[in-house]
Amino acid sequence: MKRYVKYAVILAVAYCSFSCSKNLGKESEHEIFFTSDLKVETVETRATLYEDDQDFKNLSAQGGIFHVEAYKSGENFKHLTNGAEVRWISYPERPELDHWAFYSPSENKTLTYYWPTTYALDFFAYMPYNLANTHVSIGDYNGGPTFNCTLPLDGSGQDATREFIYAYTTNQRRDPEGKGVELEFNHPFAAIYFKLGGAHSMTEINSVGIEGAYNNGTFTTSDGKWTTTGERAIFNATVDKMVPEDIQPNTIFAGPYLVIPQSLANVNVTVDFNWGGEDYPKEGSLSGEVEWIAGKKYIYTLVLGDSKEDIFTNVDIIGWDEVPYENNIEVK
Asked: Is 214 helix (H, G, I), strand (E, B) or coil?
């Protein structure tokens, strides 16, 4: 089922940088309106993913705050010198007053910004505001903003990972009818899960992984594409669970693990398990799939046999679901 989470955020943007908050100049009197879309899906998670509107606005889960940059359209010229923080302002006792606002944490107050009068703007926004545990760093301007990522190659590192989402829209001017600028927050990564299809009773699954995929890459917002970098790597996640005491058939037992979208040529899924006192390290090819696609979740079902059998892998591909929801909010 496809679902979208939509909310219109009315923001006012000044010509000066974020650091000019005590003396905001105005090129115009016209506020900027943002409409933000977040693509979501519901699957039990370890790595922290943005799944729905609640996650998007939840400060305790590193939602509720996003960073936004505004560039002179088509140029590496920042309209906001240091970018800006946009925060969800919530009133638990008066939810009708909840709203998004530019915010200065050092001054503990909201700010107002306005449209420029002489040029259009390109907007680049990302969440979480604090990039710790995302393994993402913001890169150079290359026809548009870029970001780089090196994902962990072990299960514990992935379990502590915070998903990074972004929005990028170009050549925006004030709409004379006051319509909003659409900021659609996208999932630039894919996610993988492992599901048990079947195994002998008393099989202990020691680990699962992916062999031959790149865990380094650079994303360019101007074309929405990843360029993989570095060397092909081996990702391995410790499981140490027994069938059927810890893992029942037809259940997901590992993941999600974030992966960089890429071609799956020469990429294998691996599993190491023990049955009857013998270890069975095995692998299965993913050559039947063409690529991992951003914003998709891949559930790999493993059927584990004995020494005369290879593992059988089947894949279900789903998206971060999207649900229609719209809420027009004025930032004061």
From this structure: strand
Q: Are 50 and 64 in contact (CB under 8 A)?
A: no
* Whether this model's pTM surpasses 0.85: no
Q: H or E segment at 16?
A: none
The Cα–Cα gap between 9 and 331 comes to 7
User: How far apart (Å, rounded) are the C-alpha atoms in residues 124 and 144?
Assistant: 9
CB contact at 8 A, 186 and 66:
no
Residue keyed to tokens 């679902």: 3
Give the containing element (helix H, strand E) for 275: strand 268-275
- Cβ-count burial of 75 within 10 angstroms (0-12 exposed, 13-18 middle, 19+ buried)? exposed
Instruction: Say yes or no to pLDDT of 61 above 60.
Output: yes
Computed over every residue of the chain, the mean pLDDT equals 81
Q: Would you say 297 and 282 are in contact if contact means Cβ atoms under 8 Å apart?
A: no
From CA 139, how far away is CA 157, in angstroms rounded? 23
**How many residues appear in the chain?**
332
The burial of 274, by beta-carbon neighbours within 10 Å (0-12 exposed, 13-18 middle, 19 or more buried), is given as middle
pLDDT of 111 > 80? The answer is yes
**Residue 20 has what pLDDT?**
35
Evaluate whether 275 touches 202 at the Cβ level (below 8 Å): yes
Nearest residue to 67 via CA among 50, 85, 51, 49:
85
Amino acid at 33: F
Sequence-separated contacts (24+) of 87-96 with Cβ below 8 Å = 88/57, 88/59, 88/63, 88/64, 90/57, 90/64
CB neighbour burial string for 227-239, b if at least 16 within 10 angstroms, e if fewer: ebeeeebebbbeb
Residues 268 and 30: their CA atoms lie apart, in Å, by 54
Nearest to 101 by CA among 46, 64, 149: 64
The DSSP secondary structure of 21-35, one letter per residue, reads TTS---S-SPPEEEE
